[in-house]
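pls design
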């Protein structure tokens, strides 16, 4: 156990192994139910409600049978027609032909590749869910058989109904949210993954054009560089900036929030409530409004550049080489290096108030006996902060810190609102990949879909972002919050 905590990769491997073992046990129990089941269980292999009906639970048997009938109808009229075209994503292209009789354009009976893809994924998802439900049903019928054999009580129809609004009411309540998650999150993820293996772009837009499967060519394009392929070059640069940004944005606001909270809560600080209220007011202003205003302030002809020019700061920066000699302004948001620096600085100003409030709550709950004992032992303020305060904050805010890092990887607002229509990349290779130096993977993805309709490459990037966030989250949680450390802070 201790070794797994030290090695997160081993813990992940162990978790995967346990997952496959659980799947093996699941199917092994199904086989056991089929072999040892009575006539009711074996009839359930064909008529799913038979096992319940034989045990007197005819109401549940009717419901399960209706589900089976609905599934068969779905397979015949929905799944089969779409899955039959899933391998090719359609073969009949849309054509408009002029009909001299009606003097109108008539459209042929064409194939919509995207609808075929979407409906096929939904159908496959329903089939997989039904298979799992089918196996569960056989095992449940076998459990009823064992209950009768051992003389245990078997629920009646009335008790089944009562359990839906009684002991199992939580399942009833969670059914709708679960369905919503499946429709809004799970299905789109599978569609995203599928699109990454097609040629869905501006030149292949359903319903006018057909899509084709292209295998791993889109992934190859993202990870390699070659003549006419700029995506590999752009991906390396944007991935490096994305990770750098996420680290800087997370650490600067986290540490800044802690220091600000400690400063405001210090006994010698005058009017702490006023200072805290001012930062809370900053939170109340919508972030997109703040960012758009700041973008105008730091524009090439903005008020900040006017002030810097008047006080001689622009000239001084020219003299030390931080601003090009031919410019009469500081390119806060138009030069790649200045823009990245300003994005981090502006994010500190936007993000610190949130962290200050969280840190204030954490600091107020640090065990005072540990602090007093450290002072009595002669520990300096720095040592108390580093050995007691900081470990406690990290223990409490560990999950939130991980969440902030993942959120910053996908921090669309700060990057997009500060640089859109302002920053123009001087790197032609990046421009050919529809990217900019200041882009994160998520803003690059948005640009590819919203401006250039390159859905195939956007889907590949979306998969990469998901993998990065998932791996980091798993490793960080296993390292940061592993171990029963609650007793240290009691």
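designed seq:
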């Amino acid at each position: 156990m201790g070794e797994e905590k030290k090695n997160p990769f081993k813990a992940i491997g162990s978790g995967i192994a346990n997952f496959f073992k659980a799947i093996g046990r699941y199917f092994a129990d199904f086989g056991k139910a089929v072999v040892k089941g009575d006539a009711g269980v074996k009839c359930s292999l064909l008529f799913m409600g038979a096992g319940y009906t034989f045990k007197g639970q005819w109401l549940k048997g009717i419901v399960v049978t209706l589900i089976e009938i609905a599934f068969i109808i779905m397979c015949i009229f929905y799944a089969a027609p779409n899955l039959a075209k899933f391998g090719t994503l359609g073969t009949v292209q849309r054509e408009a032909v002029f009909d001299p009789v009606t003097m109108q354009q008539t459209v042929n009976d064409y194939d919509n590749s995207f609808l075929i893809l979407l409906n096929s994924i939904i159908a496959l998802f329903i089939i997989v869910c039904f298979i799992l439900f089918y196996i569960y049903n056989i095992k449940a019928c076998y459990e009823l058989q064992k209950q009768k054999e051992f003389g245990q009580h078997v629920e009646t129809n009335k008790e089944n109904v009562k359990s839906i609004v009684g002991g199992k009411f939580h399942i009833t309540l969670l059914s709708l949210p679960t369905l919503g998650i499946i429709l809004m999150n799970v299905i789109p993820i599978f569609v995203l993954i599928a699109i990454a293996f097609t040629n869905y772009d501006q030149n292949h837009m359903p319903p006018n054009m057909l899509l084709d499967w292209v295998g791993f060519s889109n992934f190859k394009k993202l990870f390699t560089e070659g003549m006419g392929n700029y995506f590999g070059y752009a991906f390396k640069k944007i991935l490096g900036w994305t990770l750098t940004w996420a680290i800087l944005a997370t650490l600067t606001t986290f540490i800044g929030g802690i220091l600000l909270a400690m400063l405001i809560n210090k006994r010698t600080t005058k009017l702490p409530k006023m200072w805290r209220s001012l930062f809370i007011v900053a939170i109340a202003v919508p972030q997109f409004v703040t960012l758009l205003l700041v973008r105008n302030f730091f524009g090439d002809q903005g008020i900040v550049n006017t002030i810097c020019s008047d006080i001689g700061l622009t000239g001084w920066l020219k003299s030390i080489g931080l601003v090009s000699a031919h410019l009469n302004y500081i390119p806060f948001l138009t030069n790649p290096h200045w823009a990245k620096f300003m994005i981090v600085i502006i994010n500190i100003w936007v993000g610190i108030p949130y962290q200050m409030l969280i840190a204030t709550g954490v600091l107020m709950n640090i065990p005072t006996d540990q602090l007093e004992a450290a002072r009595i032992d002669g520990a300096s303020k720095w040592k108390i902060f580093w050995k007691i305060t900081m470990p406690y904050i990290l223990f409490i805010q560990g999950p939130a810190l991980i969440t902030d890092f993942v959120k910053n990887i996908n921090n669309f607002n700060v990057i997009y609102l500060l640089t859109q229509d302002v920053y123009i990349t001087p790197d032609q290779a990046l421009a050919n990949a529809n990217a900019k130096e200041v882009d994160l993977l998520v803003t690059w993805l948005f640009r590819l879909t919203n401006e250039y309709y390159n859905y195939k490459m956007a889907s590949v990037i979306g998969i990469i972002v998901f993998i990065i966030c998932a791996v980091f989250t798993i490793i960080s949680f296993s390292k940061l919050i592993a171990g029963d450390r609650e007793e240290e802070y009691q």
